[in-house]
Amino acid sequence: MAEQVVTARLPPARRLVPDGRGGMASAAAPADEQGKILPRSQLDRLMRMHGLDQTFRLAPDVQSELSRLAEDFVADLVERGCQLAVMRKATTLRASDLAPYLERTHHIRVPGFSGELRPYRRPNASEVHRERAAAVRHSASAAGAAAGAGGGGGGGGGGGGVGPGAPKGRGGG
After folding, report:
1. Helix (H, G, I), strand (E, B), or coil: what is residue 49?
2. Region annotation Disordered: residue ranges (predicted)?
């Protein structure tokens, strides 16, 4: 059986954007971007967002390499997603087609599309926390023992209904 490979070639002025239904659609890109996935304006915005001031500049070869890397990543992602879409005999590329490749190859989890449920792992308690918790348990058990031993039988009928002299509860007989 011949392997069918689908590659996504977009015109230079088009790009993929989420369509709101879990799939991808192409949309017109602004003329100054010329179909780049990571244009210079986006690189500048990312640098400012991560605290690099206006005096920090990327060399032109670094900018071109970052743009090329982003374009290669997206092209490879779309190609692998299209292969999975063809396997399920579909003509629409969905996030569920991209999720397995992202998770296996790049260790990127797409929320809602992972096959396994990851249990919540409680963080390990620090030594200080364990000591404080032990002190609280010790003081609570000491207070409980003092309250139970000091009664002597007369008075208010506390005790919580445990033991042979406890009143009968509902349906117990």
Report:
1. helix
2. 144-173
Residue 45 lies in a domain: yes
Q: What pTM value is reported for the model? A: 0.46
Name residue, tokens 């780049």.
36
Number of domains in the chain: 1
Is residue 98 pLDDT above 70, yes or no? Answer: yes
Cβ contact 6:82 at 8 Å: yes
Could you tell me if residue 27 is inside a domain?
A: no
Domain of 95? 40-106
Any domain includes 72: yes
pLDDT tens figures, 129-146: 999 999 999 999 888 777
159 DSSP assignment: S
Asked whether residue 109 carries a pLDDT value surpassing 70, the answer given is yes
Q: Which two tokens stand for residue 133?
A: 């918790």
